[in-house]
Specification:
42% helix, 229 residues, alpha/beta, binds calcium ion
Length: 229
Amino acid sequence: MARKVLVLEDESSIRGFIVINLTRAGYEVIESETGEEALEKLRDNPDIRVALLDIMLPGIDGFEVCRRIRATNTRIGIIMLTARSQEMDKVTGLMTGADDYVTKPFSPAELTARVDALFRRAGGAAPEQAGEISQEPFLLNTRNRTLEKNGQRVKLTQVEYSIMKMFMENPGKALSREEILDMVWGRDYFGELKIVDVNIRRLRLKIEDNAQNPTFINTVWGYGYKWGF
Ligand code: CA
């Protein structure tokens, strides 16, 4: 599987620093000095999965490059490289379609961690996809055991996470409280069924738009619960 990353940075010392560190982390790095060159290299290498874009460049700037990439490619991960003085740039960069930003100067560890994270999310290969369950507006990451709603992290306990995973793996299926207890707490758990209701009530407060009128976790009267409709 290709681990290709594009680096667009006109300052050769910074570019060199990035290339050395990403290469060391196991990435194949494709370098470019200008936005025009970056777009060309992206066309030649459709398997590039993450692009790091400097903002201030001769010719078209990093935002314009970002916009042009996003016009045809929603899958690639984009990280903007910003200077400390560019607070507004961060905001604008994220709005034009970047996924993340790194502020210069950054450490090799910080840079690699950001690229790794985006590389996993932008992944198209089977192993990465198997680590995620996506059902709008939710994204469950089974590798990190995390949940996002509309791109925002929802903090869950381990039990709440297990309940979410069970629901998202069984959309539209009515699950009895006994089944839920077995699946989440395990067959040898000798607790009360009420623990299911308690946890689901708390989970609703975290994930529903209105917990009083839930639309994701629906009650099946006298039986249990159902995910979705
Ligand atoms: Ca620059």
